[in-house]
Amino acid sequence: MRLDSITIKDIAKALNLSYSTVSRALKDSYKISEETRRIVQEYADIHQYRPNLIAQSLKNKHSRSIGVVLCNIPNVFFAEVISGIESVAYNNDYLVIITQSQESYEREMKNVQNLTWRSVDGLLVSLSTESEDLSHFSKLHEQGLPIVFFDRVTDQLATHRVVADNRGGAYECTRHLIDSGYRKIAHITSSPHISITRERREGYEQALQEAGLAINETYIKYCMHGGMLPEEIGKAMDELLLLPDPPDALLCASDRLTMGCYSILRKKGLKIPDQMAIAGFSNFNSPELFCPSLTTIRQPAYEIGKTATELLLELIESKRPPTEFTKKIFPTELFIRDSTRKAGS
Amino acid sequence: MRLDSITIKDIAKALNLSYSTVSRALKDSYKISEETRRIVQEYADIHQYRPNLIAQSLKNKHSRSIGVVLCNIPNVFFAEVISGIESVAYNNDYLVIITQSQESYEREMKNVQNLTWRSVDGLLVSLSTESEDLSHFSKLHEQGLPIVFFDRVTDQLATHRVVADNRGGAYECTRHLIDSGYRKIAHITSSPHISITRERREGYEQALQEAGLAINETYIKYCMHGGMLPEEIGKAMDELLLLPDPPDALLCASDRLTMGCYSILRKKGLKIPDQMAIAGFSNFNSPELFCPSLTTIRQPAYEIGKTATELLLELIESKRPPTEFTKKIFPTELFIRDSTRKAGS
DNA sequence: TTTATTTGGGCAAACGTTGGCACAAGTCGT
DNA sequence: ACGACTTGTGCCAACGTTTGCCCAAATAAA
Q1: A30 Cβ nearer than 7 Å to chain D strand
Q2: Cα–Cα distance between A11 and A48 in angstroms, integer?
Q3: Cβ atoms A125, A308 nearer than 8 A
Q4: Nearest to residue A225, comparing CAs of A235, A239, A212?
Q5: Which of A46, A275, B56, B103 minimizes the number of CB atoms within 10 Å of its CB?
């Protein structure tokens, strides 16, 4: 259902001008007399002329819309990212189309396909945990579709990437745990396919190594669906707890994981942080209300969304494909709270 | 940048048919021989023909997209609603365009305008706290644009509404507080302009009245921006606490308010629930981790989004404007936790 | 056999914009 | 006074689909 709005043709007829003159007067391009321009503008204003964006898209081959592919909207981190995306898009008159992969490769592919049929001008992507084969993206990218990756990125495609300093965040937090006296630090993380998993593990391992602590593979647990399935977190925790020499601290690699693990510890009645310390990546904004308050590594999610979108719009609007691709890395913030403070320290 | 994809014309030329025949064969309408249909379909499949949705929109006067107007994406409740919206839209091949009003009337108007220029087929709306004048919606609605309201609804427009049982939820929770022995129950709520504020207050007042308790106006605090501005919550709390006879329990009317108030109570070092009990509407999914665990009223946000979208699509796809408009009311769930359990009870 | 009806398919206009090209009138230099 | 520009505007095709209308052939009815 279209809302009856006046068109260029209407203006042309009313003013006894040709379509093209009106069109040109309206977007003050080309050589149009000041007089004509004024008359047209005035008429357009009075009659509330609005260009039909669909028609423009058809003609111009671009739709002023961008597609977003991410795993799950209610995830705090992504919700904040979206908010950042939306704000930049809004200011630039772009429209944002959001799709959720729910950590499924299948769905991610379908969404991307759908988005391209819709002729989005560019894509903002955070990979699903299942995605190993990235050909659905590289094909499009080769055809010239601008893509910017954020959070869960890849180096298989030559394009911009926007991430938090995952390695640094994990490193800093692990160091903090070590400094607090913990020696048996486990790492509960997501699928090894995605970039954040690798980077966070590297930070974790680096801190251990620098402290002269051995890396214990049995202390590293992968949740292949990033914690979407509650049972995978439970399983990982059980395995850890049943170890002959169980860990005394937990570094969790994502929002869902952090919440899930914390919740399990509490349910099992373990004393935090004495029996088990816990810290993790999380953008939840009241972790101080937990009991004990929760040590978190916070990512500048809004900033990430904002920057990724700015980069994408730049890509879209630049005439020629850029030769250089940046990887923006935003620092994380460690908030030390009671869940990692030993009673005595 | 359009991805070179084959068009109907290409197929027509290759198969030596006319555009119209191909078009009709593809959407098996009209009378086309089985033979032709098969040939066209096959060719289309092999060459991965995808209809150009922009062109279709221009021709058909609809875009298979819906606009969403709500206040703030990172708000848990709305994030879940969006997730529900997205799932229905996805299954019906509709595209979802999300805008945030940030509780600003100004922005809400601009967003709606923008959305209609984009020729969305329908609107899903949750009003901002500032919106009193609804003419930007009613104008469009009169012109035939399908609109479904959810959460913060209005009866100024004759259309579908989807909400939680706000009155019931508030009533049940207030009763619970009364039953737990609290007698001085304050209500911290949002702007009186929006429907949820009124409904929740009604539930609160009804419970008080049934219990023979007086309604104390000084116990009802309105945060005009729904708690978006941290200082408004602080001010409301201060005023309550400084009352000669301060309340002993708090019923908070929204996610942000509940979190904000809880946080302030903790910061001020008040004993929950002995000095002050607190309960509120919240969709945060780990309130049991708070200290003390937080009593919440949960709304079926995902369901609300899902249902609103189903209703909207029905409206969009039905030929004639319906004569009846439904108001779907979903029950809320009260989760009683320690923040409202007196030590002795 | 003629006429009416069905079946299958083509033509071309339309949706609202845009932009290359053409062209008339005015301006300038010589 | 005559060509060479410049300026302002109009014409028309194109973007990819859809669809009303028309028409040819085949079939059925008379």
Answers
A1: yes
A2: 11
A3: no
A4: A235
A5: A46
Q: Tell me, what's the pLDDT at B1?
A: 41
3-class DSSP assignment, residue B222: strand
| Identity of the residue in A82, A116, A259 whose CB atom sits nearest the CB atom of B73 | A82
Residue B166 contacts by C-beta under 8 Å, 6 or more apart in sequence? B195, B196, B199, B200, B203, B332
Q: Give CA–CA dist A70/A8, Å, rounded.
A: 39
Indicate whether A71 pLDDT > 70: yes
Is B96 near chain A, with CB under 8 Å? yes
Question: Is residue A17 left, alpha or beta, with left meaning phi > 0 and alpha meaning psi from -120 to 50?
Answer: beta
Residue B293: how many other CB atoms lie within 10 Å: 20
* Strand C footprint, Cβ within 7 Å: A 2, 7-9, 19-20, 23-24, 26-27, 29, 49-52, 55-56, 58-60; B 16-21, 30-36, 55, 58-59
- In the beta sheet, which residues pair with residue A15? none
Contact A223, A233 (CB under 8 A): yes
- Split at pLDDT 50, 70, 90, the class of A3 is low
Closest residue, chain B, to A95 (C-alpha): B97
**What pTM, to 2 d.p., does this model score?**
0.91
Residues A169 and A199 sit within 8 Å (Cβ to Cβ): no
Q: From the candidates B3, B87, B138, B294, which should be mutated to test the interface with A, based on the most A CB atoms within 10 A?
A: B3
Mention every residue, 6+ apart, whose C-beta is less than 8 A from residue B304: B81, B84, B150, B151, B162, B163, B164, B330
Q: Which two tokens stand for residue B328?
A: 């779907």
Helices A19-26 and A8-15 sit at what angle, rounded to 10 degrees? 110
User: For residues B277 and B180, is the Cβ–Cβ distance under 8 A?
Assistant: yes
Beta carbons of A178 and A171 less than 8 angstroms apart: no
Distance between CA atoms of B207 and B213, rounded to whole angstroms? 8
B positions 217-276 inside 8 Å of A (CB): 259, 262-263, 266
B 47-86: CB under 8 A from A: 50-55, 57-58, 61-63, 65, 72-74, 76, 79-80, 82-83, 86
pLDDT score at B173: 98
What is the band of A323 on the pLDDT scale with cuts at 50, 70, 90? confident
The closest of B304, B344, B339, B329 to B166, measured between CA atoms, is B329
Q: Which residues of A touch B288 (CB under 8 A)?
A: 263, 266
pLDDT for res A287: 93
In tens, the pLDDT along B93-120 reads 898 999 999 999 999 999 998 888 888 9
